[in-house]
């Protein structure tokens, strides 16, 4: 149903792929606009242009969500021993479990 799309970042003008999986994720959440920034520029904007560091000054690491396949950043170095999730999938999994 979806096919990968090549988009141009509005900030750095580089081209990036809006994958079929990301498109499906956007549709499932009712998002109608395509991303206008590449993953790197999105991460910089989200971190307040901290050059790859979170607002707290911690180093951030690029990962692919084990659940939805979206690119995201986490404040720890993944070892590969356990799955890593984006914020939305992590919160969804957390809400579904009972503490």
Automatic annotation (TrEMBL):
This is Zinc-ribbon domain containing protein. Residues 58-92 form the CxxC-x17-CxxC domain. Residues 3-47 form the Probable zinc-binding domain. InterPro entries: CxxC-x17-CxxC_dom (IPR026363), Zn-bnd_dom_prob (IPR025306). NCBIfam families: cxxc_cxxc_Mbark (TIGR04272). The lineage of its organism: Bacteria, Bacillati, Candidatus Dormiibacterota, Candidatus Dormibacteria, Candidatus Dormibacterales.
